Amino acid sequence: MIMSERAQFELARRLRSGDDLPTLGEVFTFLSGLYFRGKLAYAKAFASGSAVFVITPNRGLLPVDLPVGVEDLRGFGEVDINADDPRYRRPLQCDVRKLLKALPRDAQIVLLGSIATGKYVDVLVANFGDRLVFPGDFVGRGDMSRGGLLLRSAVDRTELSYIPVSGAVRHGKRPPKLEPRRYTA
What we know:
single chain, about 180 residues, mainly alpha, two-stranded antiparallel sheet, 7 helices, about 45% helix, globular
């Protein structure tokens, strides 16, 4: 839909224009809705500097503010996020190793994605060990619930508590639903 020549909404036009390309964060927010919108708002509220990256299917870790075009999205669509696929795994491993060398030894790496599968968690834990953390309140929540929790925390300026991914419960009891809220633009 976003890459269709018939799509006339602003983000689609920018994606095709080549002049004012949208950022990776804008496109993923459109594609994922609340889930990525919450991740992005939370990361921008609490990350140090510009250290916000997105795990991509074929290009490893990319900065969330990187401009992307139609060809980038087509490339993403050609590769599944599968730990057994070297087109996915190799770029991720390479970027994780570069990041590991660039970060201070005491830096925490906060993962705002699911830890339920090993498709990226295994690569990250193998390199970052106990420095890789995630919000403990994620356990048992689905994508939309995590997105809502992150968005709420960003709006409230309340950083969540983190626990190491290594050794964490990957599938837990579902927590109570978040109370509905209305947000104004």
